[in-house]
Amino acid sequence: MQLNITVLPGDGIGPEVTRQAVRVLRAVSDLGGHDFRFEERAIGGAAFERFGSPLPPATLDACLESDAVLLGAVGAPKYDALPTSTRPEAGLLTLRRALGGFANLRPAISHPAIVHCSPLQRVVVEGANILVVRELLGGIYFGEPRELNLSEGSARNTMCYTEGEIERVAHVAFAQARNRRRLVTSVDKANVLETSQLWRQVVKRVAAEYPDVKLEHLYVDACAMHLMMDPRRFDVILTENLFGDILSDEAAVITGSLGMLPSATIGGEVDLYEPIHGSAPDLAGRGVANPLGAIWSAALLLRHTAAMEAEAADIENAIWDVLQDGHFTRDLQRDASARATSTAEMGDLVEQSLADWVSRRHAFHAV
Ligand code: IPM
Ligand code: MN
Prior knowledge:
This protein is of the alpha/beta class. It is built from 12 helices and 12 strands. Helix content is 44%, strand content 17%. Strand 1 (2-10), helix 1 (14-32) and strand 2 form a beta-alpha-beta unit. Helix 1 (14-32) crosses helix 10, helix 2 (44-51) packs across helix 4 (88-99) and helix 11 (309-324) crosses helix 12. It binds 3-isopropylmalic acid and manganese (II) ion. Manganese (II) ion binds at residues 245, 249, 276.
């Protein structure tokens, strides 16, 4: 298998965590005799510093020509005063639009190896396994008009959705549910927002094509509460852009850390993979960041872009094994006095465990 991957390390802890993800992908490539090629490009604040733009043309071109894009994170407090259009985040949003992926998959799993890492009680989180399907190209993130009028002391954003935008992401959610527990919870605010009323109607219509999948509707405020009270009641959560952004951070509480959540953005020209944790400037450069969200995103890349299910599962198994053996980065540690595993050590451990999984799989096939 030949794969051309554009790597966008970005800001904050982005470079540290993507380095570990790339290292694990290289190991997959070497162990399986594949040909994965990596090209690094600048995005976000790092790109603004060097090229005066958070998404330089050379970056966008490289992304559009590749099979998949692996991104670290963008953003830093020092860019807060920049106008919206040159902020690091604008680079990411423009990239998402250009690549065209509209369905952002964000799994949150309370694996036995990390069940004690959540601040929630074991009886609440044990066995929770949620997939948030976040619409990624519409809603208030992109709606026009938008403006900040400081002299008049006013500002506005626009939330808008078309039927087509809702329909296509709903299909992804139902298709995903078919490979899981066959329950889609569509989350909206239909008691207040017109966009949500349209959302609900369209989702119901799409659901009719998946009679084997159960559909329920929840208001976003209630969903936020149920996620903490009883996360096991959820299978697939289908929701619009802003709600999905917020609920996926909340879902991270189930795992104990934002560092544990990967994401895959599919449905467009080029798929985009990124951990959901953001740039975490306070942790940057210290070797303490959790690279597992990024490494897991690399596993999702193999699954969704390359149809390399066995290799994706090898990476996931390796991640859980390392955690099961008691290696935790600082974000996952409940005992502050215990020695934490560093970012690079974590990558090293996953790579070692991966080699075991690959050889076990080969031995199995040889029988
Ligand atoms: C995320 C992030 C981004 C978003 C930011 C960095 C623009 O929070 O991927 O969840 O809001 O989508
Ligand atoms: Mn977010």
